[in-house]
Amino acid sequence: MRRLLLPVIVLMLAAAQAALPMLWWLGGWRLEFLPALVAYGALTASRPSRAVLLAVLAGLALDSLSAGPFGLSVLGFGLPAAVLAGLGESLDRDLPWVQAGAGAWVAAFAAGVACAAAGPTFGALGKISVLAMLSAVMTPLLFFTMELLHYWLPDSGR
């Protein structure tokens, strides 16, 4: 049961993220859930390859529901996931500021990759910083929710 948890949650969050309206009165910001999930996967994966696989799935799910070039988010999510998973032993994933920093870094890197492909502007740099702050707030909440789901769901018996 737990084996299917992250792929199902990736697809649910990608659909929710695509369905949310942009907040035009706040400058066109949109809440993004997938950077927080990629940070969660990278900090909790038992092997770095699983973290990168989750990042690839999240990037493809995001790109399939957005107007951006297909595969660009894979790069934006995959590189931070690989670095965070590689640093997994030296980072204390239970600390909220580590979780927030990881979520902010994944969001800022993914948005920076998309901005570099589309052409950077000063307005885009402001949106990237706000997106990183929003992701920093959402990531510890996602960690808490995922830990509750792992506690409530039965183990597969491996």
Task: Give an account of the 3D structure.
The protein has six helices and no strands. The chain has helices spanning 5-19, 34-44, 48-64, 72-86, 96-118, 122-152. The model has no long low-confidence stretch (mean pLDDT 85). The longest helix has 31 residues, at 122-152. It is mostly helical. Helix 2 (34-44) runs parallel beside helix 4, helix 2 (34-44) crosses helix 6 (122-152) and helix 5 (96-118) crosses helix 6 (122-152). The protein starts with a helix and ends in a 6-residue tail after the last helix. 71% of the residues lie in helices and 0% in strands. It is globular.
The arrangement of helices and strands along the chain is HHHHHH
Number of strands: 0
Structural class: mainly alpha
Round the mean pLDDT to the nearest integer and report it. Answer: 85
DSSP summary: helix tally: 6
Relative helix content: over 70%
Low-confidence stretches: none
* Relative strand content: under 5%
Determine the N-to-C terminus distance: 11 Å
Largest sheet: none
Instruction: Tell me the Rg in angstroms.
Output: 15 Å
| Overall 3D form | globular
